[in-house]
Amino acid sequence: MKRSTNILYGLSLAFGMTSVAGVQAQTVLDGAFIKEHTKTQRVVPYPYIREADVMWERRVWRMIDLREKINLPLYYPVKPINDRKSLFDVIKQGVLEDGSITAYNPGAVGQDDEFKVPFTPAEVKGLLSKIDTLQRPNLVTDEMETIIDTSDVTSENIKQYLLKEDWIFDRQRSVMDIRIIGICPMKEVIDKNDGSVRGYQPLFWLYFPELRYVLVNWDVFNRENDAERRSFDHLFWTREFNSTITKVSNVYDRNISEYQTGMDALLQSEEIKADLFNFEHDLWNF
Questions:
Q1: pLDDT by 10-residue block (mean), the chain, 286 residues
Q2: For the residues of 45-84, what is the DSSP string, one character each?
Q3: Which pTM value belongs to this model?
Protein backbone atom coordinates (compact mmCIF):
# COMPACT_ATOMS: atom_id res chain seq x y z
CA MET A 1 0.00 0.00 0.00
CA LYS A 2 2.78 2.36 0.94
CA ARG A 3 4.65 1.56 -2.29
CA SER A 4 1.60 2.28 -4.49
CA THR A 5 1.05 5.56 -2.64
CA ASN A 6 4.65 6.58 -3.38
CA ILE A 7 4.17 5.70 -7.04
CA LEU A 8 1.00 7.81 -7.27
CA TYR A 9 2.74 10.68 -5.50
CA GLY A 10 5.67 10.50 -7.91
CA LEU A 11 3.39 10.44 -10.93
CA SER A 12 1.37 13.38 -9.68
CA LEU A 13 4.55 15.33 -8.92
CA ALA A 14 5.94 14.63 -12.38
CA PHE A 15 2.65 15.55 -14.00
CA GLY A 16 2.49 18.75 -11.98
CA MET A 17 6.04 19.73 -12.99
CA THR A 18 5.19 19.06 -16.64
CA SER A 19 2.06 21.19 -16.39
CA VAL A 20 3.97 24.03 -14.72
CA ALA A 21 6.67 23.85 -17.38
CA GLY A 22 3.99 23.98 -20.07
CA VAL A 23 2.35 27.00 -18.51
CA GLN A 24 5.70 28.75 -18.15
CA ALA A 25 6.54 28.06 -21.79
CA GLN A 26 3.31 29.73 -22.87
CA THR A 27 3.64 32.81 -20.66
CA VAL A 28 7.31 33.69 -21.02
CA LEU A 29 7.75 37.46 -21.51
CA ASP A 30 10.29 38.09 -24.26
CA GLY A 31 11.46 41.41 -22.87
CA ALA A 32 11.72 43.48 -19.73
CA PHE A 33 8.19 44.87 -19.91
CA ILE A 34 4.90 44.44 -21.75
CA LYS A 35 4.63 46.65 -24.84
CA GLU A 36 1.05 47.85 -24.98
CA HIS A 37 1.28 51.41 -26.31
CA THR A 38 1.17 50.80 -30.07
CA LYS A 39 -1.30 47.90 -29.81
CA THR A 40 -3.85 50.16 -28.10
CA GLN A 41 -3.33 53.33 -30.14
CA ARG A 42 -6.22 55.00 -31.90
CA VAL A 43 -6.10 56.84 -35.19
CA VAL A 44 -5.70 60.59 -34.87
CA PRO A 45 -8.34 62.02 -37.22
CA TYR A 46 -7.32 64.42 -39.95
CA PRO A 47 -8.28 68.08 -39.43
CA TYR A 48 -11.52 68.96 -41.20
CA ILE A 49 -11.10 70.91 -44.46
CA ARG A 50 -13.90 72.94 -46.02
CA GLU A 51 -13.93 73.22 -49.78
CA ALA A 52 -14.26 77.00 -49.43
CA ASP A 53 -10.98 77.09 -47.48
CA VAL A 54 -8.96 75.25 -50.14
CA MET A 55 -7.01 78.04 -51.81
CA TRP A 56 -4.75 75.71 -53.87
CA GLU A 57 -4.58 71.96 -54.56
CA ARG A 58 -2.35 69.64 -56.56
CA ARG A 59 -2.51 65.84 -56.92
CA VAL A 60 0.82 64.01 -56.88
CA TRP A 61 1.84 60.39 -57.44
CA ARG A 62 5.05 59.09 -55.82
CA MET A 63 7.11 55.90 -55.97
CA ILE A 64 8.69 54.64 -52.74
CA ASP A 65 11.68 52.39 -53.45
CA LEU A 66 12.21 50.03 -50.49
CA ARG A 67 15.85 49.43 -51.48
CA GLU A 68 16.76 52.90 -50.25
CA LYS A 69 18.23 52.95 -46.75
CA ILE A 70 15.67 55.30 -45.24
CA ASN A 71 12.84 53.08 -46.53
CA LEU A 72 14.19 49.78 -45.16
CA PRO A 73 11.84 49.81 -42.09
CA LEU A 74 8.96 49.38 -44.56
CA TYR A 75 10.58 46.30 -46.12
CA TYR A 76 12.08 44.39 -43.18
CA PRO A 77 11.56 41.89 -41.66
CA VAL A 78 10.73 39.87 -44.78
CA LYS A 79 9.38 37.17 -42.44
CA PRO A 80 7.28 38.18 -39.41
CA ILE A 81 8.95 38.12 -35.99
CA ASN A 82 7.53 38.49 -32.50
CA ASP A 83 7.03 42.25 -32.42
CA ARG A 84 7.32 43.40 -36.03
CA LYS A 85 6.08 42.77 -39.55
CA SER A 86 6.86 44.32 -42.88
CA LEU A 87 4.33 46.73 -44.34
CA PHE A 88 3.16 44.18 -46.91
CA ASP A 89 2.62 41.48 -44.25
CA VAL A 90 0.51 43.95 -42.26
CA ILE A 91 -1.53 44.74 -45.37
CA LYS A 92 -1.91 41.08 -46.28
CA GLN A 93 -3.18 40.20 -42.81
CA GLY A 94 -5.68 43.05 -42.90
CA VAL A 95 -7.01 42.02 -46.32
CA LEU A 96 -7.01 38.22 -46.07
CA GLU A 97 -7.28 37.35 -42.36
CA ASP A 98 -8.98 40.25 -40.58
CA GLY A 99 -11.09 41.52 -43.48
CA SER A 100 -10.59 45.08 -42.23
CA ILE A 101 -9.10 46.42 -45.49
CA THR A 102 -10.62 46.51 -48.96
CA ALA A 103 -8.34 45.98 -51.95
CA TYR A 104 -9.28 47.59 -55.27
CA ASN A 105 -8.62 46.39 -58.82
CA PRO A 106 -5.89 48.45 -60.59
CA GLY A 107 -7.42 47.63 -63.98
CA ALA A 108 -6.28 45.57 -66.92
CA VAL A 109 -3.21 47.72 -67.57
CA GLY A 110 -2.63 48.81 -63.95
CA GLN A 111 -3.69 52.43 -64.49
CA ASP A 112 -6.98 52.51 -62.53
CA ASP A 113 -6.34 54.17 -59.17
CA GLU A 114 -9.84 55.50 -58.45
CA PHE A 115 -11.05 52.67 -56.15
CA LYS A 116 -13.89 51.67 -58.49
CA VAL A 117 -13.86 47.85 -58.42
CA PRO A 118 -13.20 46.13 -55.07
CA PHE A 119 -11.52 42.74 -54.93
CA THR A 120 -12.97 39.92 -52.82
CA PRO A 121 -10.57 38.23 -50.37
CA ALA A 122 -10.64 35.14 -52.61
CA GLU A 123 -9.52 37.22 -55.61
CA VAL A 124 -6.71 38.78 -53.61
CA LYS A 125 -5.63 35.32 -52.45
CA GLY A 126 -5.56 34.23 -56.09
CA LEU A 127 -3.32 37.19 -56.95
CA LEU A 128 -0.86 36.33 -54.19
CA SER A 129 -0.73 32.59 -54.81
CA LYS A 130 -0.70 31.23 -58.35
CA ILE A 131 -0.43 27.64 -59.59
CA ASP A 132 0.85 27.16 -63.15
CA THR A 133 0.81 23.84 -65.02
CA LEU A 134 3.71 23.35 -67.42
CA GLN A 135 4.43 20.62 -69.94
CA ARG A 136 8.02 19.60 -70.62
CA PRO A 137 9.73 16.50 -72.06
CA ASN A 138 11.24 13.94 -69.71
CA LEU A 139 14.96 13.54 -70.45
CA VAL A 140 14.85 9.80 -69.69
CA THR A 141 11.67 8.60 -71.39
CA ASP A 142 11.26 11.44 -73.95
CA GLU A 143 7.61 11.66 -72.92
CA MET A 144 5.85 14.88 -71.94
CA GLU A 145 5.38 15.31 -68.22
CA THR A 146 3.28 17.77 -66.23
CA ILE A 147 5.06 20.12 -63.86
CA ILE A 148 3.08 22.09 -61.28
CA ASP A 149 4.74 25.43 -60.51
CA THR A 150 3.51 27.24 -57.38
CA SER A 151 4.49 30.89 -56.95
CA ASP A 152 3.53 32.91 -53.88
CA VAL A 153 3.88 36.68 -53.57
CA THR A 154 5.59 37.48 -50.27
CA SER A 155 6.92 40.68 -48.73
CA GLU A 156 10.29 39.83 -50.27
CA ASN A 157 8.77 40.39 -53.73
CA ILE A 158 7.39 43.86 -52.91
CA LYS A 159 10.19 46.35 -53.60
CA GLN A 160 8.13 49.46 -54.36
CA TYR A 161 4.94 51.24 -53.32
CA LEU A 162 3.00 53.77 -55.35
CA LEU A 163 1.38 56.64 -53.41
CA LYS A 164 -1.40 58.95 -54.53
CA GLU A 165 -1.71 62.10 -52.45
CA ASP A 166 -3.23 65.58 -52.46
CA TRP A 167 -1.32 68.75 -51.56
CA ILE A 168 -3.78 71.29 -50.20
CA PHE A 169 -3.24 74.79 -48.87
CA ASP A 170 -5.89 75.44 -46.21
CA ARG A 171 -6.23 79.19 -45.78
CA GLN A 172 -8.34 78.76 -42.64
CA ARG A 173 -5.43 77.14 -40.80
CA SER A 174 -2.72 78.68 -43.02
CA VAL A 175 -1.00 75.33 -43.57
CA MET A 176 0.00 73.13 -46.47
CA ASP A 177 -1.79 69.86 -45.74
CA ILE A 178 -0.63 66.62 -47.41
CA ARG A 179 -3.23 63.86 -47.51
CA ILE A 180 -2.30 60.38 -48.74
CA ILE A 181 -5.33 59.06 -50.62
CA GLY A 182 -4.14 55.64 -51.77
CA ILE A 183 -1.23 53.23 -51.70
CA CYS A 184 -0.42 50.39 -54.10
CA PRO A 185 2.12 47.57 -53.55
CA MET A 186 4.25 46.90 -56.64
CA LYS A 187 5.34 43.32 -57.27
CA GLU A 188 8.76 42.65 -58.74
CA VAL A 189 8.40 40.81 -62.06
CA ILE A 190 11.16 38.23 -62.58
CA ASP A 191 12.05 36.66 -65.91
CA LYS A 192 11.83 32.88 -65.44
CA ASN A 193 14.47 32.25 -68.10
CA ASP A 194 17.39 34.30 -66.77
CA GLY A 195 16.13 35.55 -63.39
CA SER A 196 16.44 39.23 -64.33
CA VAL A 197 14.01 41.91 -63.13
CA ARG A 198 11.62 42.84 -65.94
CA GLY A 199 9.73 45.58 -64.12
CA TYR A 200 7.09 46.12 -61.44
CA GLN A 201 3.42 45.21 -61.53
CA PRO A 202 0.71 46.86 -59.38
CA LEU A 203 -1.17 44.32 -57.25
CA PHE A 204 -4.08 46.34 -55.87
CA TRP A 205 -4.93 49.79 -54.54
CA LEU A 206 -5.80 50.46 -50.90
CA TYR A 207 -7.77 53.45 -49.63
CA PHE A 208 -5.31 55.00 -47.18
CA PRO A 209 -7.79 56.59 -44.71
CA GLU A 210 -9.21 53.08 -44.19
CA LEU A 211 -5.75 51.49 -44.04
CA ARG A 212 -4.68 53.86 -41.23
CA TYR A 213 -6.82 51.95 -38.71
CA VAL A 214 -4.59 48.91 -39.28
CA LEU A 215 -1.24 50.69 -39.62
CA VAL A 216 -1.64 52.54 -36.31
CA ASN A 217 -1.31 49.28 -34.30
CA TRP A 218 1.94 47.98 -35.83
CA ASP A 219 5.46 49.04 -34.84
CA VAL A 220 8.15 50.30 -37.19
CA PHE A 221 11.81 49.79 -36.34
CA ASN A 222 13.59 52.80 -34.85
CA ARG A 223 17.34 52.82 -35.50
CA GLU A 224 18.08 55.01 -32.47
CA ASN A 225 15.87 53.65 -29.70
CA ASP A 226 13.90 50.39 -29.37
CA ALA A 227 11.77 51.97 -26.64
CA GLU A 228 10.52 54.65 -29.01
CA ARG A 229 9.15 52.65 -31.86
CA ARG A 230 6.42 54.34 -33.84
CA SER A 231 3.59 52.98 -35.89
CA PHE A 232 3.39 52.77 -39.68
CA ASP A 233 0.69 55.43 -39.53
CA HIS A 234 3.06 57.78 -37.69
CA LEU A 235 5.79 57.11 -40.26
CA PHE A 236 3.55 58.18 -43.14
CA TRP A 237 2.08 61.12 -41.19
CA THR A 238 5.54 62.55 -40.45
CA ARG A 239 6.84 61.72 -43.96
CA GLU A 240 9.76 59.59 -42.74
CA PHE A 241 10.39 58.07 -46.15
CA ASN A 242 12.00 59.02 -49.42
CA SER A 243 10.21 58.91 -52.76
CA THR A 244 10.35 59.97 -56.40
CA ILE A 245 7.50 61.84 -58.05
CA THR A 246 6.20 59.88 -61.04
CA LYS A 247 3.21 62.00 -61.98
CA VAL A 248 1.52 65.28 -61.18
CA SER A 249 -1.97 66.33 -62.27
CA ASN A 250 -1.77 67.61 -65.85
CA VAL A 251 -4.00 68.26 -68.82
CA TYR A 252 -2.73 65.14 -70.65
CA ASP A 253 -3.07 62.87 -67.58
CA ARG A 254 0.32 61.31 -68.35
CA ASN A 255 3.23 60.09 -66.25
CA ILE A 256 6.66 61.68 -66.33
CA SER A 257 8.00 58.50 -67.93
CA GLU A 258 5.79 59.12 -70.98
CA TYR A 259 7.67 62.27 -72.00
CA GLN A 260 11.02 61.98 -70.16
CA THR A 261 13.40 59.06 -69.67
CA GLY A 262 16.47 58.23 -67.63
CA MET A 263 18.18 61.15 -65.92
CA ASP A 264 15.80 63.64 -67.54
CA ALA A 265 12.85 61.96 -65.80
CA LEU A 266 14.64 62.14 -62.45
CA LEU A 267 15.46 65.81 -62.97
CA GLN A 268 11.84 66.51 -63.88
CA SER A 269 10.74 64.80 -60.66
CA GLU A 270 13.14 66.94 -58.60
CA GLU A 271 11.93 70.06 -60.38
CA ILE A 272 8.34 69.29 -59.38
CA LYS A 273 9.49 68.73 -55.78
CA ALA A 274 11.20 72.12 -55.82
CA ASP A 275 8.09 73.80 -57.24
CA LEU A 276 5.93 72.37 -54.44
CA PHE A 277 8.42 73.52 -51.81
CA ASN A 278 8.82 76.98 -53.32
CA PHE A 279 5.06 77.49 -53.59
CA GLU A 280 4.60 76.92 -49.87
CA HIS A 281 7.74 78.92 -49.01
CA ASP A 282 6.68 81.90 -51.14
CA LEU A 283 3.39 82.15 -49.25
CA TRP A 284 5.38 83.29 -46.20
CA ASN A 285 7.86 85.50 -48.04
CA PHE A 286 7.36 89.02 -46.68
A1: 50 47 61 84 94 96 96 94 92 94 94 95 90 69 71 91 97 94 94 83 97 96 89 96 96 94 94 92 75
A2: PPPP--GGGEEEEEEEEEEEETTSGGGHHHH--SS--SS-
A3: 0.83
